[in-house]
Amino acid sequence: MNKTPAEAKVLIEGIKPLVKGAKCGVVVCVPYVDLPTVLEAAKGTNIGVGAENCHWESSGAFTGEISAPMLTSMGVQYVIIGHSERRTYFGETDKTVNKRIRAALNAGLNVILCVGESLEQREQGITKELVAMQTKIALGGVTKEEMKKIIIAYEPIWAIGTGKTATAQQANEVCAAIRSTVAGLYGKGTADALTVQYGGSMNPKNAAELLAQPDVDGGLIGGASLRPADFAAIVKAASV
């Protein structure tokens, strides 16, 4: 929940020249009120635009919600679903994540699915089991063909906005577990083609080490994305 439309325009204009020619995909996911401004600012660039959530129904008595068809009608290409903040503060469950994914895919959106554990769950030693369960439930009813429109982001809740970061090895272990889970559901080819991101306080200092891991394909960037130079440094690390 950052940036008014005017502020978002300044941010995107600052990012555009710095990521031009990047050898990786670049997507910005912004609050709903910023979407028209950012879509216009990103026209003709290599920057994709996404929303931060969508509802599972296409319309109806859900005051305050935004549907997937509303997003696609604007030209939005991506949507984040199941972010840890949605799960922690707004009652998101594995079941509602699955319903939102189904709605997003039906509307033609690309989905950035977020999974991850709390500090307590990590200390209990159930990280891999939990993340596998979240992944399996979220992908219920998703076909092998539809997996081409899914990105999965591992975001350890204990490392979001805390300044704490999973070690490169920890990040890779869980990203590998996610890929293994997808392989069990859809086969090795689908799992190998899947983009698995790390999303826990990635920044210019740790990006290269994290992105060098074999199962970390990219980053879901939070705080660092609000600073064009920092974001560009991460994009550069991802482009190597």
Q: What features would you describe in this structure?
A:
The protein is an alpha/beta fold. It has a domain at 116-238: Aldolase class I (TIM Barrel). 45% of the residues lie in helices and 12% in strands. It has helices spanning 5-19, 35-42, 68-74, 84-89, 94-106, 119-123, 127-138, 168-186, 188-193, 207-211, 228-238, and strands at 26-29, 47-51, 78-81, 110-115, 150-154, 195-198, 218-219. Strands 1-2-3-4-5-6-7 form a 7-stranded parallel β-sheet. The longest helix is centred in the C-terminal third of the chain and has 19 residues, at 168-186. The chain is globular, with a radius of gyration of 17 Å. The model has no long low-confidence stretch (mean pLDDT 96).
SSE diagram, text form:
Elements: H1 5-19, E1 26-29, H2 35-42, E2 47-51, H3 68-74, E3 78-81, H4 84-89, H5 94-106, E4 110-115, H6 119-123, H7 127-138, E5 150-154, H8 168-186, H9 188-193, E6 195-198, H10 207-211, E7 218-219, H11 228-238
Helix pairs in contact: 1-2, 1-11, 7-8
Spell out the helices and strands N to C. HEHEHEHHEHHEHHEHEH
Q: Give the CA-based shape.
A: globular
Model regions low in confidence, pLDDT < 50 over at least 5 residues = none
Largest sheet: 7 strands, parallel
What is the residue-averaged pLDDT? 96
Estimated share of beta-strand residues: 5-15%
CATH architecture call of the domain at 116-238:
Alpha-Beta Barrel
SS-based structural class? alpha/beta
